[in-house]
Amino acid sequence: MKHKDVERRRQGSASRNTVEVKRRAIELGFDAVGIATLERNAHAAELDRWLAAGYAGGMDYLRRQAEQRKEPARIMPNATVAVVTLTSYFHGPADPAAVLPDRAQVAQYAWSGDYHRILGARLARLADAIRRISPGARSRCYVDAGPVPERDLAQRAGLGWIGKNMMLIHPRLGSFTFIGVVLTDAALTPDLPFDADRCGSCRRCLDACPTEAFVAPHLMDARRCISYLTIEHRGEFTEPERRLATDWLFGCDVCQDVCPWNVTFAHATTDPELAPRADLMAPDLNAFAGMTTSEFDRRFEDTPFERPGLAGMRRNAAAVRANRTPVLSERLAPTGERLTELQHRLADGLAKIDPHHRLVGRPVSYRVIDGQAFEITFRDVPGIAEAEVQGVKRLIGTDCFCTVSPQTQEAVTVRFVVPLHS
Ligand code: B12
Ligand code: SF4
Ligand code: SF4
Fold it and tell me: How far is the CA of 256 from the centre of ligand 2 (A)?
């Protein structure tokens, strides 16, 4: 047989096998699947710059794995392609204002049992299917573990683009998805990369981040990211870190919650294995303080809370509690007792007049303007009623004025300015 015919046959069988592998992946419950080549990561230089700038904080494993992330072909000998899957874990728009005062917010990806186990088992079944479809093929499965550049591979597999918030966004599923990868030496036909950038001029995610963690589009200082602080950071928080953690007990969804591709297109998942658990969606803030390790293991074994462990969850809960009590910044010290008194009044009063957490738990900052006035700014407020504004003014108890300005389509910034001279 001529070389050309052999090649044509090989390609024919590769594309038949590819169709079959994709069909099987959807049957197994993945929401989307694509095939990526393993050529050098087009964003290798960005990864180097990111690491060199120190933005990875204490995530030393990212430094150790950098060479493989840049050259994914080095991860598994003889691997030729990555079968990349997306699984939506979106449970619909979350309403932080609905979280009760003694409960705290958790990022949606952690609302169900451990995705490493659930998707790991699904990927193992997909690897079995690949072996059956392409006899003798060897595979390795990864989900959020190992030196795999998952978002880059997903983009290369045609599954979406990398948004300004660094999330892989699928045009139909949005960004609340887990990426799963099977590296394999089976002969499969790669998809075309998703080359379009559908963020356009939007920058909602960058503006909404409560900690200003984005240095620029596609560039995050993880040390300022609530997700890093509450999940990956080891040890106690410093005072500035504690403040950055704001009102999140575990992870953070703000830069995804505001994204139009989630707001408009994403649908809540019906995946039974990813059904939300009430004890994970909004845990009792006070439960962790007195919990023993064995109780924690019994209740949260096989959940994402295992990553920070009991010590980390205790630290996070203490930070949320402290952040719900407005604290004057040190910069205000010279203005003395009057401000301290105002702070106490706000701390005690807000909890009572603001049961829906319009202001309590929102990122808050304080500033003295020219030694003349004291400005209190609440960000990410999901709307505020005139009665609530009047309530705060009464708490402040002295002449002050309030401005409410739009921050995003869903959130406003509320400022109270209090004259200091009288
Ligand atoms: C370390 C890590 C984190 C860190 C750092 C996050 C970050 N943005 O890098 C922290 C702890 C902060 C984190 C947070 C979260 N994470 Co995380 N995380 C990872 C992990 C393990 C490695 C990512 C990494 O290498 N980061 C370093 C950066 C530099 O690399 P990168 O993110 O791959 O980015 C590449 C591209 O952005 C590209 N690039 C750079 N510049 C440019 C410019 C342009 C124009 C383009 C197109 C591309 C591009 O180059 C980079 C390097 O190759 C991956 C799993 C994995 N193995 O990949 C999960 C992963 C990225 N995380 C995930 C999730 C779900 C989250 C959270 C949503 C969890 C939460 N709710 O709290 C948040 C989201 C925060 C955010 N906006 O990114 C998912 C993302 C799924 C998706 N659809 O994108 C992943 C893929 C895990 C999984 N298997 O599902 N995470
Ligand atoms: S996860 Fe939260 S803190 Fe981190 S970048 Fe997104 S909005 Fe900012
Ligand atoms: S919020 Fe806007 S800029 Fe950010 S990822 Fe979504 S579309 Fe892109």
Answer: 8
What angle, rounded to 10 degrees, do the helices at 386-396 and 337-353 form? 150
Burial per residue of 250-266, b for 16 or more beta-carbon CB atoms within 10 angstroms, e otherwise: bbbbbbbbbbbbbeeeb
Q: Which residues line ligand 2 (CB under 6 A)?
A: 209, 211, 213, 220, 225-227, 252, 254-255
260 close to ligand 3 (CB < 6 Angstrom)? yes
What percent of the chain lies above the pLDDT cut of 90? 70
**Alpha carbon distance 345, 395 (integer Å):** 6
**Centroid of chain to Cα 146:** 19
Rounded CA gap, 358 and 380, in Å? 9
On whether residue 144 sits in a domain, the answer given is: yes
Q: Catalytic residue numbers?
A: 144
Q: Which domain holds residue 398?
A: 330-419
357 φ/ψ angles, rounded to the nearest 5 degrees: 55, 45
Is residue 189, in this structure, part of any structural domain at all?
Answer: no
Look at residue 136 and tell me if it is in a domain: yes
Q: What is the DSSP string of 82-112?
A: EEEEEEE---S---GGGS-TTB-EE-GGGSS
Q: Using an 8 Å Cβ cutoff, are 97 and 356 in contact?
A: yes
Give the closest ligand to the alpha carbon of residue 164: 3
Is the shortest distance between the CB of 262 and ligand 3 below 6 Å?
Answer: no
What's the chain's average pLDDT?
Answer: 90
Would you say 86 and 32 are in contact if contact means Cβ atoms under 8 Å apart? yes
20-49: per-residue pLDDT in tens?
A: 999 999 999 999 999 999 999 999 999 999
Q: Are 3 and 11 in contact (CB under 8 A)?
A: no
